[in-house]
Amino acid sequence: MATTPTGDEIRQSVAAAYASRVRPVLERPDTIPLTLIGSSASCCGPDDESCAVDAEGNATSCCGDTVIDETQITNIAKLYAGADTADLPASVMDVAFGCGNPTAIAALQPGETVLDLGSGGGIDCFLAAKMVGPEGRVYGVDMTPEMIALSRKNTEKVGATNVEFRLGEIEHLPIDSASVDVIISNCVINLSPDKAQVFREAFRVLRPGGRLQVSDMVWTKSAPDEVKNDMEKWAGCIAGALLESDYLGKIAAAGFHDITSVTSEYPDGRGIASAAIVAFKR
Ligand SMILES: C[S@@+](CC[C@H](N)C(=O)[O-])C[C@H]1O[C@@H](n2cnc3c(N)ncnc32)[C@H](O)[C@@H]1O
Fold it and tell me: pTM to 2 decimals?
């Protein structure tokens, strides 16, 4: 009988999965598009309207033979429609693995300090950096060294001077207490083996009056057991996702108030959904 993986084993497996996804982008010469070296992080090109999920919830072959996993069931270009991504390089856009656009729900203001939990290649940090301007500051925290290496390289490419990426776990944030105005996160907290601890840490680093504005995967009905126990589906943002009510309960237990959630279910009938969640610290 399979043993239940420990929290550290889950984190190691998730970090290994994301390291292998980001390595081709980290190592490729800047001039070669990822599609030409046999891999694609984002689902479809900006003009592709055909991206969809099939009856099993898998992405249909909107990008020819490209292998698409469940983190990419949403077309990244569509997620960021209307966002200011035109000047972001391919090495940012090709590793956008989100399931929403937290900067769109965060109403970021000039001068604010923002923290992105699980910042990946940095897409939401770079969007946030433009919104908070030179008086503001953006921190990205990610546990995968390859992601941090790429996001730091991307910082130089983008020319962002108000963004800093730190290696660390979102369960143990390398961030001072009461130092952040807004926490954003995109398709990451579902990957944590200890979500209650993530929300406690989020509460600790927020200033009084600060807000948590995240996009994440949740279940609107109980996840099937075969999905919950599949480690590959954990890295794919499905197995570790909580029932929406449990997720919101953990946010409340950490001390947040005025918690709201808006979900968009994927059309496969299983009840897996992208949620836009907002909560406040008094
Ligand atoms: C689905 S990707 C999302 C990346 C980014 N937010 C985006 O929208 O492109 C998940 C990211 O979270 C990071 N991650 C997962 N679990 C983490 C944890 N417990 N602590 C820190 N980072 C974590 C992974 O290394 C990966 O970069």
Answer: 0.88
